Amino acid sequence: MPSTLPAAARPPWRPRPVPRVLSVAGSDPSGGAGVQADLKAVAAAGGYGMAAVTALTAQSTRGVSAVHVPPPSFLAQQLDTLRADVAMDGVKIGMLASAEVAEVVARWLDGSGPAGRPPVVVDPVMVATSGDRLLEPAAEDAVRGLLDRADVVTPNVPELAVLLGDADAPSWDGVLDQALRLADRHDVLVVAKGGHLAGDEVPDALVGPRGVVAELPGQRVRVSSTHGTGCSLSSGLVTRYARHGSWERALRETKSWLAGAITAGPALEVGGGRGPVDHFWALREALVEG
Ligand SMILES: Nc1ncnc2c1ncn2[C@@H]1O[C@H](COP(=O)(O)OP(=O)(O)OP(=O)(O)O)[C@@H](O)[C@H]1O
Ligand SMILES: Cc1ncc(CO)c(N)n1
């Protein structure tokens, strides 16, 4: 299994037809992003989803009006209670809000328990699609610390720049170069995402410390339903990996599924801002045909 962790920290990997996947992320009551999106993306990829909430947002398709962070010790309690009972085949980490919350998650990952550490994907959420901040600037170092514990990290263009302490890459080649540097610095696989670039192309790539593993072309879907695309990509990715053990295949499958979900999003008619994607578009197509 491709992994950045020492073998001793891992359980023996086996394909899991219905992977048990935990999302550690913030709540978006509009259902488009955060744990709500993660649970739908995990289910749409054939997994069983669980969620430990790091922070509550007051959020709609138009933006975030408030963030409430419960005591980090309560997050620790959620995580420990769960791990004492449930074996996990994948973990997705999203909004962390503060350095204290990120440190709780790092400590929890370090004490992986008798079952070993499952594959971990970190989506280093910093700013919502609407432009609202979801991570205190003082917490950026703590998020960098989590990259050392992750198998895969999925930054968008601005997050990649912040993690490196650079300016936003102006082109796809610049994004690939930054992804390579981040992969090398943290010995992690980086999913470089083209969603924030201008133009008709939305390429993604899987980049490791030694170079680009796979580059995936994509056509931009010209709709406004892109709220929560990053959350959905990272959760779908770890679930599909847990099913077959290939990050490259999991990224291809998840990107293709997500393009369908973005295309189908407007038909949901949710909200007047940036609407959600339709995680279950393929199921709906099957229902109509069946
Ligand atoms: N308009 C689009 N058409 C097709 N694919 C898209 C579009 N926008 C984003 N994607 C895809 O969605 C995934 C997430 O990309 P993006 O760069 O938008 O992430 P993000 O900014 O982290 O998302 P979020 O909006 O949840 O914060 C990537 O696979 C990207 O290629
Ligand atoms: C809770 C939450 N997590 C992540 C994002 C990023 O899309 C968001 N808007 N809200």
Automatic annotation (TrEMBL):
Pathway: Cofactor biosynthesis; thiamine diphosphate biosynthesis; 4-amino-2-methyl-5-diphosphomethylpyrimidine from 5-amino-1-(5-phospho-D-ribosyl)imidazole: step 3/3. It catalyses: 4-amino-5-hydroxymethyl-2-methylpyrimidine + ATP = 4-amino-2-methyl-5-(phosphooxymethyl)pyrimidine + ADP + H(+); 4-amino-2-methyl-5-(phosphooxymethyl)pyrimidine + ATP = 4-amino-2-methyl-5-(diphosphooxymethyl)pyrimidine + ADP. One of its GO terms (molecular function) is kinase activity. Catalyzes the phosphorylation of hydroxymethylpyrimidine phosphate (HMP-P) to HMP-PP, and of HMP to HMP-P. CDD domains: HMPP_kinase. Residues 28-278 form the Pyridoxamine kinase/Phosphomethylpyrimidine kinase domain. It comes from the Bacteria. The keyword Kinase applies. It holds the Pfam family Phos_pyr_kin. This is Hydroxymethylpyrimidine/phosphomethylpyrimidine kinase. It comes from Isoptericola halotolerans. InterPro entries: HMP/HMP-P_kinase_dom, PM/HMP-P_kinase-1, Ribokinase-like. The lineage of its organism: Bacteria, Bacillati, Actinomycetota, Actinomycetes, Micrococcales. Keywords: Kinase, Thiamine biosynthesis, Transferase. The keyword Kinase applies.
